[in-house]
Amino acid sequence: MTSLRSLITQQDVTWVASAISPEDHVVALEGGNEPLEERAGDGAPYRLRLVSHDPQAYDLYYNVVSNPILWFAQHYLWGLVESPNIDNGLHLAWSEGYGAVNHAFADAVIEELAREPEADVFFHDYHLYVAPRLVRERMPEATMSHFVHIPWPQPDYWRVLPESIRRTVHDGLLANDLVSFHTERWCRNFLRCCEDILDAKSDFSAGRVRYEGRTVEVRARPISVDPAEFAALAESSLVREEEATIEDGRVEQLIVRVDRTDPSKNIVRGFKAYELLLEEHPELRGRVGMLALLDPSRQDIPEYAEYLGAIQRAARVVNDRFRTEGWLPLEIRVEDNFHQAVAAYKQYDVLLVNAIFDGMNLVAKEAPLVNARDGVLVLSENTGAHDELGEWAITVNPFDLSGQAAALYEALTMDQEERGRRLHGIRSHVAEHDIAAWIDAQLADLDAVEHGSGSRLPV
Predict the structure, then answer these.
(1) Angle at 302 (CA atoms; ends 149, 320), nearest 5 degrees
(2) So what's the pLDDT on residue 37?
(3) What is the distance between the alpha carbons of residues 50 and 34, in angstroms, rounded to a whole number?
(4) What is the CATH number of domain 227-432?
(5) Number of other residues whose CB lies within 10 A of the CB of residue 172
(6) Secondary structure (DSSP) of 17-55
(7) Considering the entire predicted model, what is its pTM?
(8) How far apart are the C-alpha atoms of 291 and 346, rounded to whole Å?
(9) Which sequence spans correspond to the domains of the chain?
């Protein structure tokens, strides 16, 4: 919701979303198919259409297909020797879970289009790859856009999935008029996949796919944040309280990472790189600390629960090896505490973002906006943010432990003038390319393919 606040402010919006909590289901059932009149945090009005799902179907959709399969595929997380194993259970989850939930969303969108035939439809992310085709079949004149917030892998990696699934994913996306990603890199991969998997005709220079008699535009539109929102947060009483706690416990220099406990975030390798840094540079011991603020992610999924255990074990190795009386090399806090994260943003000397692959990674954009110590960004080359911020960051390969240790040392020992220059460069770029610009660019893209409509249906 936060990233689309500008859309709500600028446009007449009906938000179509899953009913998640018991309260949501009660509201959805009592309201029938009528959207609810709601207001965003800034008072902007919008309508909310809640879609209820069978609990078992939703579990299959979210916990069997969307995250362990699509998320893992799109972040290159499988080693392939032992996983994935595509069995009857996955095929059932695809049809009875992912397909069923996508059908429910498509039905809701079609009903809303019946109320507002001129509305545009904005689909979002990997949860709804099937829905656009279902809408297109019944509403052939609908204007639809789909934004994919995560990486798009190369064609060969999609061949891990059965042909029926990989074809359905790409066919569903090409039912839209416009498909957008965060970077040109993901766009190129998508264009290649459309050719290799569907035999579509991709125009790489124009960013366009011709498929089944229709033309689909493909664009790179990197998401961003609201600098004013973070400026206000940084001065809030809740953030100041958290910052005081961090300041009380900090040593001379602080390395910070803020992540979900997701395997794609590469937290374990980051800890190992920090261990190597302390091994190679004993003069840093007692003078440098690492603070890892980790939001527990998707713990109902075995792979995620196991990864959290691996994170905790890796942290224990570092501390058991190097801790001394009065100095804990690595502190991890596993909790959902956004104000604490913003406080850490203000206090870092080095920010480590070493994701294996990431569609964007907004931490790399958020933290420099409020940092008060001329902090240096160490950034994985496989994040979407690197395409924009790489010239001001220290670039790392997320698999190279020695390279990451060397980058941390370079950041810790960089002179003050260069630190300030890099931080200023990131801030200026994010200020110019903020969340409002992201929304405006997408609306302009959609207007270019269909000149009409004032209403929007985000899904």
Answers:
(1) 100
(2) 80
(3) 9
(4) 3.40.50.2000
(5) 21
(6) EE--SHHHHHHHHHHTTPPEEEE-TTS-EEEEEEE---H
(7) 0.93
(8) 13
(9) 2-224+436-458, 227-432
